Amino acid sequence: MVVRTTLRGTPYTRLLTLSIFANVVFSIWFLFGSRCETNSVAKTQSTSSNSPFFSFASPKNPPKPKWSPSLFKTCCPQNQSVEMNAEYPSFSFCLHPRGKDYAVSDSVYKASGSSEGLFETPIRKQMLQVLERHGDHNAVVLDIGANIGLHAMFLANAGYKVHVFEPLKKNYDLLACSATSSARLYNNVVVNPYGLGKEVGKSCIVTDHDNFGAAKIKNGQTCTPEYTVEVRRLDEYLTKSKIQPTLIKIDTEGYEFKALITAKEIFKKNPPPHIFTEFVPRHFKDPAVNEDPEDYLQFFYDLGYKIQWRDVKEVKKGDANYKDLLNTDMNDLYMYR
Asked: Domain span at residue 330?
């Protein structure tokens, strides 16, 4: 006779069954749940890197918040903004207080939302025209010495990607604020709170008390932290950002040559088709700048540019127009190829 012993129903078997079931559930979660989590992280990384408003968080590069109308309302002081309601889509400028910046900010106040009558309107219209003729709706623009963004905002509102460089904090804060006034500007304006020069480092910046567009970087001087600015190199910026500008606008009160010269080798391979520059010979000769204005013009001749000045389509080196240009105080030049 065979005696069969069964443990069915005893506390031991129930405990053993529960243990096996728990192990099976954990194994299934480990195999599939962790895989889903990994895929979710990968998807988040991909979305973050491609989004115009988000990037990976890090101590040095926090993510850019999503645009909302409240951003501009938060950053712009009361009674210091003007809506450009004649533009489509409309946007707003955050400005210096009335009477504190007669050239740029006051011209915006007086225009009351119109683009006509603003500071340097003819130059801005010409830049927009050459970009339109160029035909690249994804064109990249550099605005070096951007002031409060008077040119940059119109160019960005037209749909172009504009990288701005402005070292003076009083100007930069307003510029960065204006760039939050619409979703289009927020997406198209890349703000850089530093100047460009031959060497990376710190320098001083000085400005007129009622014209913040006349700010000048001056080497070899001491200044308070408020007027101590960072200077970087254009060649390094172009290499790191991997951009090829279609148009450059530069107005740095005599620092133009120092700002562009580092990118000469890059421009030999990929010259920007259009460059708009202020040219004031006495600014180059300032002891704190110490550059020869003719070297700046030669920089463009070496790269194969033609120089347009006023109604002169091509200023040739050594001709009568060239000599007049060097002896004229305030000039706006258009370099083209």
From this structure: 120-336
